[in-house]
Design goal:
The protein is an alpha+beta fold. The chain has helices spanning 12-23, 40-45, 66-76, 87-102, 105-110, 126-146, 157-172, 178-189, 191-202, 208-211; strands at 2-5, 29-32, 55-58, 61-64. The chain folds into two domains: 2-80, Glutaredoxin (3-Layer(aba) Sandwich); 87-196, Glutathione S-transferase Yfyf (Class Pi), Chain A, domain 2, CATH 1.20.1050. The chain has a four-stranded mixed sheet with strand order 2-1-3-4, covered by helices on one side.
Length: 214
C-alpha cells in the first residue's frame, strides 16, 4: 500500500489519511511529492488522476481524496475501530467529517496550515472566527455527547479530519473554550500527530505563500 502525499509542513489534506494509517498501525509506504515545483503536478499525475494529493494505491486499486481514502481503509480493515461502533454515532461522525471536508472556506483561505511557524492573533477576521466558533461547537457537542476524550469517545477518522485544524489553531491561536482547547491539546499529544509535525518541521523545502504571515 502506497500513500502519496505532499509536504508535511503544509498539506492538511495529506495529513488526515496519514494520521489514520499511523495511529491504527496499518502498514504503508509513503511517497512524497514536493509542492510548488515545476513538475509537481506531473509527478502527482503519475499516481492520481486529479493531479492532487493525497492518493492511496493498494493492490492495483487507486483511491483519491482524503475522505474516500479513509472510507476505503475502514472497509479494508473492519476489525479496526476507524469509525464509531454504533450506527447513530457513525452517521454523526460522517456528518462532521463531511462538514470539515466541504466547509470552513474562510478558515482554509486565511489560516493555512504551516506546522513550522507561530502567528498568534493573525488572520482573525469575522468570517474566520465564525468558522472557529462552529468548529468549537462541533467539538464541544461531540465531547459532551460521547464523553470524550476524543470526538466519539475513542480516536476515529473524525479526529484525524480535525487534526489539521488543530495545527492551524496551534499556529494562529484563536481563543477557544477550555474544553475545546483541552481537546486540541490531546490531538497534539498523539504519537502519529507528533511524528507528522516533527517531520514537517524538519523538511528543508519552503513555499513562499505558506511562509508569509497573513
Amino acid at each position: 500500500m502506497q500513500l502519496i502525499i505532499a509536504n508535511k509542513r503544509y498539506s492538511s489534506w495529506s495529513m488526515r489519511p496519514w494520521v489514520v494509517l499511523k495511529h491504527f498501525g496499518i502498514a504503508f509506504e509513503e511517497c512524497k511529492v514536493w509542492l510548488a515545483q515545476p513538475d509537481s503536478r506531473e509527478q502527482i499525475l503519475r499516481y492520481s488522476p486529479t493531479g492532487k494529493v493525497p492518493c492511496l494505491i493498494d493492490n492495483g486499486i487507486t483511491v483519491w481524496d482524503s475522505l474516500a481514502i479513509c472510507e476505503y481503509l475502514a472497509e479494508s480493515y473492519p476489525h479496526l475501530p476507524l469509525w464509531p461502533k454504533s450506527r447513530e454515532a457513525r452517521a454523526h461522525a460522517r456528518s462532521v467529517c463531511a462538514e470539515m471536508h466541504s466547509g470552513f472556506t474562510a478558515l482554509r483561505t486565511h489560516m493555512w496550515m504551516n506546522v513550522g511557524v507561530h502567528w498568534p492573533g493573525a488572520a482573525a477576521t469575522d468570517e474566520v472566527l465564525a468558522d472557529v466558533r462552529r468548529i468549537e461547537a462541533i467539538w464541544e457537542d461531540c465531547l459532551a455527547r460521547y464523553d470524550g476524550p476524543f470526538l466519539f469517545g475513542d480516536f476515529t477518522i473524525a479526529d484525524a479530519f480535525y487534526a489539521p485544524v488543530v495545527m492551524r489553531f496551534a499556529t494562529f491561536e484563536p481563543a477557544l473554550s477550555a474544553r475545546a482547547q483541552a481537546y486540541a491539546d490531546r490531538i497534539r499529544e498523539l504519537a502519529a500527530v507528533q511524528a507528522w509535525v516533527a517531520a514537517g518541521r524538519g523538511e528543508t523545502q519552503r513555499v513562499a505563500y505558506y511562509e508569509a504571515r497573513p
